[in-house]
Amino acid sequence: MAQQEQVARLAADAAQLLLESGGEIYRVQQTIEHIGRAYGAPDIHAYVVTNAIFVSLEKSEGGSVNEMRYVRTRSVHLSRVMAVNALSRRIAGGAVSLEQAQKELEDVRSLPASAVWLQVFACGVGTACFAYLFGGTAWDAFAAFWVGLVLQPFVLFLGKNGAGQFISNTLCAVLVAMASVLMMQMMRLVGVTCSLDKIIIGGIIPLVPGIALTNAIRDVANSDYVSGTIRAAEALLIAVSIALGVGFVLKLCALIPGVVL
User: Fold this and answer.
1) Would you call 22 helix, strand, or coil by DSSP?
2) Threonine/serine exporter-like N-terminal domain location, by residue (predicted)?
């Protein structure tokens, strides 16, 4: 494979890894440009949207090399984003050969996520803290903690089985609402009064599309209007799916005799 083709492929692979891991559009474009200039291909052009990457590199003898990547799934994996950024800076500084860069990029791709038990525990602590932060009592936070412990394994299960974002968030919201109602009823049986809305708020915060909304604003600020609009629409769709899931469960519980919300 010619060096220019290798450069284009490396740039596209690094960009894809960044986009899959939650990197911003401007960061992806800058990475492509840095890699191209570092390996003697200043005439490298990139067009990036939220789910696609197009890289074009002008050959010195005429013609061009084109690479395209379709990003099917996106998640938040900040350790991979940091690793690709560090590799990009070293490449720009001339400290990494093309072959070594390709090998290191594969190593970055294989970086594992946090341990499952740690993700589950962190979700439980997060939901408890948010329930308390939004005006709940210590008992509300205690109940929300167990909701979080139930939520995260379900999130991981849906992600592993390729569930779409709308379906995934709707089902997760249904689970949060059901678990919150159940926890409130259990706490009431032992004489403790909890606030259902505070428990549910704590439980749905991990589902709220904060990163998507933040990246949408940053994309618009950087004049990436197409990507910004897509991300904003994605954030709105997630919010609607959460509202549908919670609303469905609360309406259903209100129709069940003996259930006091």
Assistant:
1) coil
2) 10-252
Placement of tokens 């933040």 in the chain? 214
Q: Within its chain, how far is the Cα of 21 from the centroid?
A: 7
pLDDT tens digits, 47-65: 888 888 999 887 766 677 8
Residue keyed to tokens 């109940």: 143
Checking if the pLDDT of 12 tops 70, the result is yes
- Tell me the pTM: 0.79
Would you give the distance in Å from CA 169 to the centre of its chain? 13
CA distance linking residue 103 with residue 67, whole number of Å: 19
With CA atoms as reference, report the closest residue to 220 among 238, 211, 232: 232
Residue with tokens 């799916």: 241
CA angle in degrees (0–180, nearest 5) for 11-79-56:
10
> In this predicted model, what pLDDT tens digit does every residue of 108-140 receive, in sequence order?
888 887 788 999 999 999 999 999 999 999 999
Cα Rg of the chain (Å, integer): 23
| Distant-in-sequence, close-in-space partners of 195: CB < 8 Å, separation ≥ 6 | 136, 137, 140
Phi, psi of 198 (to 5 degrees): -70, -35
Q: Cα(84)–Cα(169) distance, rounded to whole angstroms?
A: 29
